Amino acid sequence: LATRHAGVALRSSGNPVLYLSNPPGIDRETRRGFLDDLARLNELKLQDQGDPEIATRMSQYEMAFRMQTSVPELTDVSSEPEHIFDLYGPEARQPGTYAYNCLLARRLAERGVRFVQLFHRGWDQHVTLPKQIVGQCRDTDRASAALITDLKQRGLLDDTLVVWGGEFGRTVYCQGKLTAEDYGRDHHPRCFTIWLAGGGIRPGTSHGTTDDFSYNIVDKPVHVHDLHATLLHCLGVDHTRLTFRFQGRDYRLTDVHGQVIPEILV
After folding, report:
1. What is the mean pLDDT of the chain?
2. Who's near 238: CB < 8 A, 6+ residues apart?
3. Which end of the chain has fewer CB atoms at under 10 Å, N or C?
């Protein structure tokens, strides 16, 4: 995609987006005039050179101007009623926490933002898994469930596809010190789980089975290209229409073997 589609990262501490405020002596009307003049100059440059990056810069300037008024209101969760904090947990009041980000995701969805990504780090537990996994689950379980509940209660879940997952699974066998208090699990790309909610996904459905040791898939295997094909389908995109031929073979985002998984769709 063109760089004008790039996302905006919100910082976990301090101002969520830097330089949202105008410098001293510059009001909003003056800033608008600056941008209009700059846009006219950039338009001349775009007509002369035809560089799409110039158009990207113009759209980013406009987005930054809109964000000066929208982001402060968006990230201030103090207006949320008490029952919302009871749902997400007390950490939802603290910027930078996963619970706060889940609440922020709902507020973004309400305002028409079409793609939101939350990130929770620290799952690569090759050691000290018994201690670390407790904290990871404490951070994510309640807030993730709250986000689904909140979206559903507001009538947003049917039009919102929630995807929760990571890079790969972990081995069922241990590594490291191998004591009850201190062991870890290695990377395991053979099989892992991703859960989906809303956006045309059939509730309460489990698809695919591993062997008794969670080492190999024994029933209904799903490739990551199948997952991508299904996500695109839920978003209203026929993934096969993205096919193009290069050096004698077909390519697409889902490669040539990705297929939609109809069993998990409503």
Report:
1. 93
2. 232
3. N
Beta strands in 112-261 (DSSP E): 162-164, 169-170, 187-188, 195-197, 209-210, 217-219, 244-246, 249-251
Report the pLDDT averaged over residues 74-101.
95
Residue 201, SS3 per DSSP: strand
SS3 83: helix
pLDDT tens per residue across span 177-192: 889 889 999 999 999 9
| Euclidean distance between CA atoms 154 and 162, whole angstroms | 15
Question: Is the entire prediction scored with pTM above 0.85?
Answer: yes
- Rounded Cα gap, residues 166 and 170, in angstroms: 11
- Cα–Cα distance measured from residue 197 to residue 150, given in angstroms and rounded to the nearest whole number: 13
- Structural contact between residues 207 and 220, judged by C-beta atoms closer than 8 angstroms: yes
Q: Is the predicted pLDDT of residue 2 greater than 80, yes or no?
A: no
3-class secondary structure, 235: coil
